[in-house]
Amino acid sequence: MALAKSDAGQKQIVTDWITWTRADENVPFQSRHNLAISQSGNVVILTITNTGLRQGENEISDPMEVKRYNTLLLNEVVDGLNRMRNLSENSATSNLQGIIDVQTGSDNAGLPVIIVRAPFDVVWDRLPIALESVGMKMGDRTRSKGSIEVTYKGLSSASWSTLGVDKPTINEGDYKLQVGDLNNRSSLQFISDKGKPLTQSENDQMVAAMKAAFSKPIK
After folding, report:
1. What is the value of pTM for the model shown?
2. What InterPro entries does the record point to (predicted)?
């Protein structure tokens, strides 16, 4: 759809001429429209008005024809929004079920953190299985604060071998896992019960462990 004018501040779009090709019409209809967005409470309202309708050189003013092409455009807009929503849902499902990359990083204070390349909501939902697979049992967790209490018991040598990583050297015990929201990425920081974050070496080992955990697609 070609646009003649777009005003984000006024929440209005003016289309250029749109050609509607139909098999039963030798000369296609063309229409122009104004699209305006408003809001009433939690409801978003899209209003479409016709600013021109023609067939070849003939201007069309029949109210039924005007309504018809307003409706056709509305259907096109709704179909487009549905396609965008489906793409977004498919992307989220892919992240929710597929392999997620994990890297080492640091916070604003320079302390080591684990960077998970997926949005907060996806990571939060994947963490229970991921943590369990590296020998961590979850306790209380608060989504609004991104906080999870975990107890690290470790795994057997055979289990670490199956994951394909070396056994981390971090001490067994209780940790607070802080999950940060970085828009399209997330951060993980393990803090001991004494309030100390992991060392760089320990963090790098947990990066390898969590990378293996998030590399298991959910079936």
Report:
1. 0.56
2. BamC_C, NlpB/DapX
What does CATH list as the number for 3-95? 3.30.530.50
Q: What is the pLDDT of residue 87?
A: 57
Strand, helix or coil at 128? helix
∠28-33-36 over CA atoms, to 5°? 155
Q: What is the predicted pLDDT for the residue at 184?
A: 85
Instruction: Tell me what the mean pLDDT of segment 104-128 comes to.
Output: 91
| Arithmetic mean of pLDDT, 145-153 | 93
CA atoms within 13 A on the CB side of 103: 7
Strand pairing of 12-15 and 3-7? antiparallel
Average pLDDT over residues 41-63: 91
Sequence-separated (6 or more) residues with CB below 8 Å from residue 23:
none
d(CA 20, CA 18): 6
**Residue boundaries of the structural domains of the chain:** 3-95, 102-215
Q: Cβ(45)–Cβ(20) under 8 Å?
A: no
What pLDDT does residue 92 have?
55
Taking the C-alpha atoms of residue 134 and residue 155, their distance in angstroms, rounded to an integer, is 7
Residue count of the chain, please give it. 219
Q: Is the pLDDT of residue 1 over 70?
A: no
**Dihedrals phi, psi of 154, to nearest 5 degrees:** 80, 180
